[in-house]
Specification:
This protein is an alpha+beta fold. The chain has one helix at residues 3-20, and strands at 24-42, 45-63. It has one domain.
Length: 69
């Protein structure tokens, strides 16, 4: 997922949440993107290797009463 897709997804989520309920005080959207390389070495040779990428998203909504929802 590139940065323009992440930005578009964030805008879409915020607009959807804010227009669904007038009782919402604020919303947060968190995105995480990480890449990793895992290499296992045994007896001076590569036993296993893995390259990967993890992506995640979370949404926090706080209503006008201050409650999380």
């Amino acid at each position: 997922m590139d940065n323009s897709n992440i930005h578009s997804l964030a805008e879409y989520c915020l607009n959807l949440i804010e227009h669904k309920n007038s009782e919402i005080k604020c919303t947060d959207i968190f995105f995480e993107k990480s890449k990793y390389i895992n290499i296992e070495i045994e007896e001076n040779s590569i036993k296993n290797n893995e390259v990967g990428e993890d992506n995640g998203v979370s949404i926090r909504v706080i209503n006008k009463k201050g409650s999380l929802g």
